[in-house]
Amino acid sequence: MAFWKQFVLSLIVIVAGFAAWVFFVPGAGDTMRDAGIPDSFVSKIAPKAEGTADADAPARAQGQQRGEGQNRRNGGGRNSAILVATQAVVQGVVNDRLNAIGTGDAIRSVAVTPQASGTIREILIKSGDRVKAGQVLATLDSEEQVIARGQADVAVKAAVEKSNLYHNIKSSVSRMDVFDSEIAEQGARLQLQAAELNLARRNIIAPIDGIVGIVPVNIGDNVTTSIPIVTLDDRSEILVDFWVPERFANTVSVGQPVEAMSVAKPGQVFSGMVEAVDNRIDAASRTLRLRAKIGNSSDELRAGMSFSVSMKFAGDKYPAVDPVSVQWDSQGSFVWQVNDDKSRKVRVSVVQRNPDFVLVKADLKDGDKIVTQGLQRVREGGAVRVSGDVASNGEVATQ
User: Fold this and answer.
1) C-beta atoms surrounding 24 within 10 Å
2) pLDDT value at residue 285
3) Cα separations (Å) of 315 from 192, 230, 253, 322?
4) CA-to-CA distance for 172 and 386, rounded, in angstroms?
5) How far apart are CA 60 and CA 64, in angstroms?
6) For residue 394, what pLDDT is reported?
7) Least crowded by CB within 10 Å, which of 16, 29, 322, 330?
């Protein structure tokens, strides 16, 4: 397209746009006057806009004066107040719950070893059996001990006969002979007791009530007093040892309730109580050892299981606010509190951060309104209106 055609087309577009602005935009005449265009020219090309503006000017000025007066009386007016959203302060608790991992053990557990060395002749139990204290678990070869007991029995009988004889003929024997016979009788009886004890030790006896573990020996094995024959567990109750941080040292005590969950029983909570508290803090880990006792009447738990242990405490109470409400400046952290439709900066010290709220140390109480939205425009002592408040026209104010 030729240059002159482009120029003419551009000029037509400019003129059309100017005409549309003049006839459709209120106040176009005033704008042209401000730009220095003579009034005679303006009145010719924009009479309608000019007339409308002149007619509305007195009413508009009067309304503006009334609005300014009302704003002055209201301290700026509700429409000038900053719209914000708030959330009430609630009470939060810190250090109110303790979670730890512990290991379970039977309330009583005994590795049974023989009291004498020898060859196993008989095994009377198997893994999983319930046994009572005093029950024979296994026996060792005892032929030698049986012979020794027989010899001691014969010696006792001979000593008794000799002692009785000396007592009957006291007149013909010395008192020293009678005394010697009595001593011999007592010695023979002691030898018999020793022989019977050695024979009894050939039986391996259960020292406690419990459940038999895996038996690691067989008939014919030669065992000594250092070789365990079997392990017995009394798991009517389970002891769980766990460690807690040092800050709980003055909080925990014997008798406090605990709850434990086993990895083998997910979702099932077992109740118990603190059975013992150690007397010192571990210097390496800065933790305190505790022992809890959990009932196991249904025999669902085993020694060696891992447990997740939890305890509840009264804890320390602090005001809790929404995380987004905490702001920072050169002096530290603060929140905006709304009181009587005015904003006030309250200094806070963060105690603990949680996903849903922040615990702070501040001059706040339950129910105080804290700004959570519109924070960028809030100023100290400024007028605010809370989202959801009823406006003067009866409508709910929304942002």
Assistant:
1) 9
2) 92
3) 68, 47, 15, 20
4) 125
5) 6
6) 34
7) 330
Between CA 71 and CA 287 the distance in angstroms is 64
d(CA 215, CA 124): 11
Please state, in angstroms and rounded to a whole number, the distance separating the CA atoms of residues 223 and 115.
10
Token digits of residue 1 = 């397209």
| Binned average pLDDT, 10 residues per bin, the chain of 399 residues | 73 79 69 69 58 44 46 50 90 82 93 94 94 95 93 92 81 76 90 94 94 94 93 94 90 92 88 94 93 92 92 85 92 92 92 87 91 89 76 33
Structure tokens at 13: 């577009």
Q: Which amino acid, one-letter code, is at 365?
A: K
Report the distance separating Cα 335 and Cα 320, nearest Å: 12
How far is the CA of 211 from the CAs of 39, 88, 217, in angstroms? 114, 58, 17
What is d(CA 204, CA 112) in angstroms, rounded to the nearest whole number?
Answer: 8
Cβ neighbors of 114 (< 8 A, separation 6 or more) are 138, 140, 201, 204, 223, 224, 225, 227, 229
How much is the pLDDT for 277?
95
State the residue for tokens 């026209």. Answer: 393
Q: Report pLDDT for 355.
A: 79
- What 390-399 contacts at long range (C-beta under 8 Å, 24+ apart), as own/partner pairs, is 391/78, 392/78, 397/83, 399/83, 399/85, 399/373, 399/374
Residue with tokens 């573990």: 213
Residue 362 CA to residue 320 CA, distance in Å, equals 10
Q: Identify the structural domains of the chain with CATH numbers, from first to last.
A: 3-73 (no CATH), 80-94+317-386 (2.40.420.20), 97-133+205-313 (2.40.30.170), 142-201 (1.10.287)
pLDDT at 20: 75
